[in-house]
């Protein structure tokens, strides 16, 4: 059985995956409205509502109703500047966004996490992603989809040397460890949003690639 999301809330619309997902949503005839707050203005579209400003400050002003929410927020420790700043985005801001989405009526939340997310991990990045997942589960969503892509592939505005060097190898790794194109992930997210599957789902990178073909 499939649901047809009509009113969408999207965080991270200017990011690598968020840009592709926004294009996808705005091209869908079944989507009535996309509410996409962002720090810089997005291209105008008749079905797009784009409050401009810092997301945390914008959340109280957002209006519903919303059917489905996508969270494409994500940074790196280097990009954020410190472990504390990274946690503020990839944990605290994600949870604040999810809480507001639920207040606006959303019943399905889809969140980009990361391969290896584990609240017990000795790796700080993976531990924060795992703690974020656990906290979202505690919000008791009717439908929660956590996707764990491997390295995201595609052109970024900022230069990431490690990802640039690793990308050729990760394209060929088997199973869930293989890199995934952001365009593929965006298509997979949309397909997952259309599925009615109550409770919590955790989707690894290998399945995401199949869904996004």
Automatic annotation (TrEMBL):
Pfam families: NAD_binding_10 (PF13460). Gene3D superfamilies: NAD(P)-binding Rossmann-like Domain. CDD domains: CC3_like_SDR_a. PANTHER family: OXIDOREDUCTASE HTATIP2. It comes from the Bacteria. SUPFAM superfamilies: NAD(P)-binding Rossmann-fold domains. This is Oxidoreductase. The lineage of its organism: Bacteria, Pseudomonadati, Pseudomonadota, Gammaproteobacteria, Pseudomonadales. Residues 7-108 form the Semialdehyde dehydrogenase NAD-binding domain.
């Amino acid at each position: 059985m499939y649901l047809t999301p009509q009113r969408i809330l999207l965080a991270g619309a200017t990011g690598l995956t968020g840009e592709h997902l926004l294009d996808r949503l705005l091209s869908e005839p079944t989507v009535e409205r996309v509410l996409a707050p962002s720090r810089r203005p997005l291209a105008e579209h008749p079905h797009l509502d784009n409050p401009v400003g810092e997301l945390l400050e914008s959340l109280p002003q957002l209006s519903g109703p919303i059917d489905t929410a996508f969270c494409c927020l994500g940074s790196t420790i280097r990009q954020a500047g410190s472990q504390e700043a990274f946690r503020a985005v990839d944990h605290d801001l994600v949870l604040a966004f999810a809480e507001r989405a639920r207040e606006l009526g959303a019943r399905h939340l889809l969140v980009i996490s990361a391969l290896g997310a584990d609240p017990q991990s000795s790796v700080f990045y993976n531990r924060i992603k795992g703690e974020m997942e656990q906290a979202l589960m505690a919000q008791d969503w009717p439908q929660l989809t956590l996707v764990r892509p491997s390295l995201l592939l595609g052109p970024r505005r900022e230069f990431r040397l490690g990802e640039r060097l690793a990308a050729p190898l990760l394209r060929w790794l088997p199973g869930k460890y293989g890199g995934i194109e952001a365009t593929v992930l965006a298509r997979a997210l949309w397909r997952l949003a259309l599925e009615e599957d109550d409770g919590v789902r955790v989707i690894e990178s290998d399945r995401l690639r199949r869904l996004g073909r």
